[in-house]
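Hi D.,

Good news: the full-assembly prediction came through. Inputs first.
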Amino acid sequence: MERKTLLTECPDSKGLIAQITNICYKHQLNIVRNTEYVDPVTGQFYMRTVLEGVFNDTTLLFDLDRALPTGSRRSLLSEGAKRVVVLVTREAHCLGDILMKVFDGSLALDIAAIVGNYAELSALADKFAIPYHHISHHGVSRTDHEQQILATIAPYQPDYLVLAKFMRILSADFVAHYRNRIINIHHSFLPAFIGANPYQQAFERGVKIIGATAHFVNEQLDEGPIIEQMVRTVDHNFSAADMAKAGRDVEKAALSRALQLVVENRVLVHGNKTVVL
Amino acid sequence: MERKTLLTECPDSKGLIAQITNICYKHQLNIVRNTEYVDPVTGQFYMRTVLEGVFNDTTLLFDLDRALPTGSRRSLLSEGAKRVVVLVTREAHCLGDILMKVFDGSLALDIAAIVGNYAELSALADKFAIPYHHISHHGVSRTDHEQQILATIAPYQPDYLVLAKFMRILSADFVAHYRNRIINIHHSFLPAFIGANPYQQAFERGVKIIGATAHFVNEQLDEGPIIEQMVRTVDHNFSAADMAKAGRDVEKAALSRALQLVVENRVLVHGNKTVVL
Amino acid sequence: MERKTLLTECPDSKGLIAQITNICYKHQLNIVRNTEYVDPVTGQFYMRTVLEGVFNDTTLLFDLDRALPTGSRRSLLSEGAKRVVVLVTREAHCLGDILMKVFDGSLALDIAAIVGNYAELSALADKFAIPYHHISHHGVSRTDHEQQILATIAPYQPDYLVLAKFMRILSADFVAHYRNRIINIHHSFLPAFIGANPYQQAFERGVKIIGATAHFVNEQLDEGPIIEQMVRTVDHNFSAADMAKAGRDVEKAALSRALQLVVENRVLVHGNKTVVL
Amino acid sequence: MERKTLLTECPDSKGLIAQITNICYKHQLNIVRNTEYVDPVTGQFYMRTVLEGVFNDTTLLFDLDRALPTGSRRSLLSEGAKRVVVLVTREAHCLGDILMKVFDGSLALDIAAIVGNYAELSALADKFAIPYHHISHHGVSRTDHEQQILATIAPYQPDYLVLAKFMRILSADFVAHYRNRIINIHHSFLPAFIGANPYQQAFERGVKIIGATAHFVNEQLDEGPIIEQMVRTVDHNFSAADMAKAGRDVEKAALSRALQLVVENRVLVHGNKTVVL
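Then the structure:
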């Protein structure tokens, strides 16, 4: 007996849940948890169905495809670790947090490799015996740099790329290779303080709360679908540096909670938003 | 076209969602939102289905009853205000908060009447033109006092009783009249600081967080199913009185959020717990 | 025996705390609580000293003024209710929340009057027997409208103006009459979603957290010193209207917490920021 | 120029702040930040003074001791890393979190050694090149076990012991060696769910919030002064195991925030409470 998650997305119509769950029933699958959402504006239907039983993926998906309307997307996802490649620059906190959570069993990732545009974090990768590829951006064009990264990542066949404080902007071309599969942590409570040095901006504005945003990366910088946001309070005692330090905690927390949601097959992309079922 | 919520509870079995949603489909009802939960320990199935369409309640419920296993409970609930009677003692904050939220349209309650064992809060009831019944407990037995309250409440036929800082313990007999329909706000983060004067207890223990618990009342004092809990931070600067004051804010917030969940037909009782779908 | 709060602000120099507290000691005043902050960037010194004893305000302030460097500001504030005039438009929730908190004793304000540019909320003011001035902005110039408001407010001699969802932008000239004494609640987590319809913006961006900002009003719209910010989580189920509704709760909470800080004489303005001691 | 923190505790009397800050001024020390608290119940005075300048510790403390009343305690603490020994059993998450925060520079601890009553976590210690002492409790009396641990720890001369999920109860005798210097993370929101298996208890009670408590250890199990408490929401979907997993996140967060407060010299013990200045 196995457990899998069926994610379905299609234009809404009457009887959809009945059709899908009838097929599951016909396949002798038990529904452990079912959550559904219809967007009232777009009329798009989203459903997450956790199934238990003996799976014949091919016939199940065949039956579903015959029943669902044109333009539907469905995926049948196994439980268990997602395969990722992590991209980093020089800051250790997000990578370290992920590595430790994988180590202590609280985050089901299979970290296939780490790619850094600086060499600093290779020592951290080594502690956990994970391949580290140092691909410097110095003296190469952005296009060439991205091609090197893509070529390095490809053999690992990751489910997702995780940008754990990777401080390079990715081109639309790069992003297209991993559409809705690149997860970034942005060091602000988007859309506040877009761009560089958000903590300095937050300090100058005298805010009482700072935050971080985990989101899928799309072609528009800082505009991809938000998966998770977290915040914490600050006060006048915080210098810009203190805010950045406090922010690192929030960044770690938001990124790892987003990754947890992705691991649990709970995140569907919906235009430039997410539906978290 | 109307919108209603179907709440279903029964022992789990394969095909349940398909059966229920098939019936909805047969009745030409559109499923706006569907959330389901199966308790892995007890194997009990819970589902909340928000339906839209033209309802024939009788035939819909008849079809459901025929399809569902023995021991099922289902209810088809309209949208809109719940009818309540609020019981109070002398503290104004929870009652005032509810009255104001009903007044400004943010909480869909129809407050039929207020019952107080003191007269103090009748002035507040008057401001909002709600009948206030002062039923003193002085010089009467608990049984007689409760009988007077029950007799006063009965004609209003409330969906729920709300204990908004009603400081009298209700007998099992009283509770039986409104099984899982009495909502209390308890002035602590249950199960911490059970009993009287929880803020004094919290102060003496030097806690850094205080809380409040909204729960259904059952026969066991402080033991009914928890609907909502909220907390806030405190520090060494808080005296016991300051904690009580801060606690009043949390009490209001937890009670009104619990009431909001009840208004949205999202709370199912599950033994001594709740399932909030 | 009385309790008063001394707020001091001046350029930092060695021995300042000693000088100030020596003077308090000389005046036989007991220091109940003392909190101090020096801005490391500007070198400005801020101190809040809660004093207990028998006060001779004139000689105490005289001694302080002699001791403190040029450019110092200090105020000796009594405990107890602040006198305010509340400005509103048509939304009841913030005004209602303040009225109820004053009523139940949890917020020490003396609400001298309410000014509305619409008539709607006069019924709410009446419930609490507070004078309501309807000063419509229709058919009058902004300057004339503001002059009418100023003339109406002046006799009440308020300590603060509270903009409880007052949806008119105030001119620099108006603001100058109540410098750092106008408290506004902004319906977004500033600086995100500046301007009109922030909840629609938040909805379209698909954020997972919304917030509100209580701030002093200065000449720059949405740019005044932030006193308090609060947030709450939302998810894909929230329509723009749901977000606005959830936002109203946060607006109330942030505004009333900011007012509480002001009542406790804890807020000092520091350029376009606040220091909350 | 150096920065040090002076912590002072003594019975309150008029002029104390003036006396202390006069001495600082006389020593040409600048006060960067000063926070003071007087317990209104016990009349005990607590002050934290961050000083900057050239220190002559001996004369400064001599002057203070002469000025302060009998029964005073004061300490002059350097900035910078605290020296700790961490005690663990088999769970990696708290130890891992601390190690990673020290590694990435966000927590200023000097982890001198790790002591475990099981061998499991030695591999984790090795990654960070920290001595790991496996001192099994099997086949030895509690007294002997504790003596072995004490003997092992002593040469490291730690400022604090950190119990990072050390699942053994320490005797009063052990605790006496490190009075108010042993920091424990308790896996519940104390005083709720005291004792073993709090997550099972929380699950059975159907709570909507779980928490963790970081506290100093005293002779009474689960009764020492609370430094920090943190919580997170849970719901009916959480099994006892899910709660335990969610709880591990809160445990890490509460412990590391408590350690951060200790590192910043902000925590004073006050009977069975803490004052965090």
